[in-house]
Amino acid sequence: MIIFNKIKELLIYRQVDFDIIEHEAEGCTDIISKIRGNKLQQAAKAMVLQVQNGTEQLQYVLAIVPGDSKVNFKSIARLMGGKKSTFAPPEVAQKLTECQMGAVPPFSFNDKLTLCVDERLCSVGRLYFNAGELNKSISLNADDYFKVVGRNCIAEIATPMIAKV
């Protein structure tokens, strides 16, 4: 089953109101936010990271940060009890998420992929994200998102980007 359908079924099962937004294929947060008409901080940007914890075994994290932020690699490593975190190789990220990069949603459907969501997404009102496909997004209330994924995944894992003047 494709990820878009998994998300829809999960949200329907959890009785969450959501909107599907169909648009031109786009995976860049800045551009898709303009197309959808959402504020950049309302975009839930998903990145797959790998954490080194001193053993040869890597841990994988699906880090969700606001669109106007970047992931704080040190925070992710500390949170996971590791020494260092980096972006996972694209082929690993695609295998873990079953999505092409740019279309990864803020949901993990893989036990090997730990979900971590930046705390600032709790207060943005409405979340917008690509939903497993580059041409489909979903919008829902942030509180409803956290009702689905839980609050144990919330942490301070992002740093605001400084606007270029």
TrEMBL record:
Q: Which InterPro entries match?
A: YbaK/aa-tRNA-synt-asso_dom_sf (IPR036754), YbaK/aa-tRNA-synth-assoc-dom (IPR007214)
SUPFAM superfamilies found in the cross-reference section: YbaK/ProRS associated domain
**Domain named YbaK/aminoacyl-tRNA synthetase-associated: residues:** 36-147
Name of the protein: YbaK/aminoacyl-tRNA synthetase-associated domain-containing protein
